[in-house]
Every structure is written in structure tokens, then in C-alpha cells.
């Protein structure tokens, strides 16, 4: 089984890490390509919509990853990496107009790999995704970026590269045949019943 190879520093190292700089990834920016992919699905299935359930780690939630001993790389806004990916998918779905809390089709994931190499310049993300009643399917993505020999520089570049790697990872999620099948199945969802208007 793929596993997360580096996680939150142990409590005993807390004071040491507090003296190190931290490298914070950028807030997620909606992917125009992902939105277009989703809108193409909507054209095929006009009543289609999905909602997003939890994105969890296989082991413990991942809040930071140490980079070359220089300091931790972490998501913004005190999120875990898994929460960042989950919120990013919601943003893409909302922008495309295909997100609905009332949908009977939910997308969730178990993140089995979320790590980087600041030496080779690569983020690796892997998850077992569940979409509606479709069998869980594995999505893997390796996003490359230009790194640096210098530690501080390399860690800054690594943090900057996380957001575009998430965009590309989610592109694979929503472009999969399993996602399309789940999305098409949402068309059959019964319409919500109208509530009685007082005094009518």
C-alpha cells in the first residue's frame, strides 16, 4: 500500500521547528481547464451535479512536511493538505456551476501519498477516490517544477509548486470515466420537494 512518507513533526521537535522559517503554499486558484472540463460534462448531462464529502489521509492528517531541514512546507489558513485538496475541488465545482449540497452523488478520497522531492523538483499526490456508487478508483499525479540547489530557495519553490500540482491532480479526478459515470447518475436524482408557503 502506498503510504505518506513524511508527516507532522513530533512534539519533541516543536521548539526546534518554531525557530525555522515556514514555507506556505498559495491559496488555491480555480483552474480554468478544470472548469471547462466540468462545463463540458454539464452540457452532456444538464441536470448533473455533485457534492464533496471528506478527503482524509490514510494515516494521520498531514499539516506540514519538513523541507531539507530548513523548515516546514504547509498549506495556508491552518488547513491540512487533505483539506486543501478537498476545498480546491469544491472551488472548481462551484465555479463550473455543478456543485450542489442536494446532489445524491458525493465525491470523497483517501489520500495515500502526498509528498515532494525538493531535490528533483516534484510533488507526488495519490488517492483512492470514491464518486457516487462507482467502485473506488486510484488517481496518481506527479507534478514537476524547477527547484534549486540552495535550500531556502528550493523550499520556497516547492511551496509555490503545490497549488498547480493540485490543479493537475484534480484534473485527473474529474476527467476519469468513473467521475463521468457518477456525474451522469446524478441526473436521475429526484427533485427536492417544494415546501408549502405559509398562507397559501
What's the layout of helices and strands?
Elements: H1 14-18, E1 23-24, H2 32-44, E2 51-57, E3 65-67, E4 71-74, H3 81-96, E5 106-117, E6 122-131, E7 137-144, H4 151-175, H5 177-185
Parallel strand pairs: 1-4, 2-5
Antiparallel strand pairs: 3-4, 5-6, 6-7
Helix pairs in contact: 2-3, 2-4
Assign the CATH topology: Double Stranded RNA Binding Domain
The largest β sheet comes out as:
4 strands, mixed
Which value, in Å, is the CA radius of gyration? 19 Å
Approximately what portion of the residues adopt beta-strand conformation?
Answer: 15-25%
| Morphology call | elongated
Outline the low-pLDDT stretches: 1-18, 189-200
- Could you spell the SSE succession in H and E letters? HEHEEEHEEEHH
What is the end-to-end distance?
59 Å
Count of individual helical segments: 5
Helix content: 25-40%
Number of strands: 7
Structural class: alpha/beta
Give, in spatial order, the strands making up the sheet with the most strands. Answer: 2-5-6-7
The CATH architecture comes to 2-Layer Sandwich
The first-level CATH class name: Alpha Beta
Total number of domains? 1
What is the overall pLDDT average? 87
Amino acid at each position: 500500500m502506498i503510504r505518506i512518507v513524511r508527516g507532522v513533526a513530533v512534539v519533541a521537535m516543536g521548539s526546534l521547528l518554531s525557530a525555522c522559517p515556514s514555507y506556505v503554499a498559495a491559496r488555491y486558484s480555480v483552474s480554468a481547464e478544470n472548469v471547462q472540463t466540468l462545463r463540458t460534462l454539464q452540457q452532456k448531462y444538464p441536470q448533473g451535479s455533485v457534492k464533496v464529502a471528506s478527503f482524509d489521509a490514510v494515516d494521520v492528517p498531514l499539516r506540514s512536511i519538513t523541507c531539507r531541514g530548513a523548515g516546514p512546507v504547509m498549506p495556508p489558513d491552518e488547513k491540512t493538505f487533505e483539506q486543501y485538496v478537498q476545498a480546491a475541488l469544491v472551488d472548481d465545482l462551484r465555479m463550473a456551476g455543478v456543485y450542489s449540497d442536494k446532489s445524491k452523488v458525493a465525491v470523497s478520497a483517501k489520500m495515500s501519498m502526498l509528498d515532494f522531492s525538493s531535490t528533483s523538483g516534484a510533488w507526488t499526490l495519490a488517492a483512492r477516490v470514491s464518486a457516487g456508487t462507482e467502485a473506488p478508483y486510484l488517481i496518481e499525479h506527479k507534478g514537476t517544477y524547477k527547484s534549486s540547489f540552495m535550500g531556502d530557495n528550493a523550499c520556497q519553490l516547492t511551496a509555490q509548486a503545490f497549488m498547480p500540482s493540485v490543479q493537475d491532480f484534480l484534473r485527473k479526478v474529474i476527467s476519469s470515466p468513473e467521475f463521468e459515470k457518477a456525474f451522469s447518475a446524478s441526473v436521475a436524482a429526484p427533485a427536492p420537494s417544494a415546501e408549502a408557503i405559509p398562507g397559501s
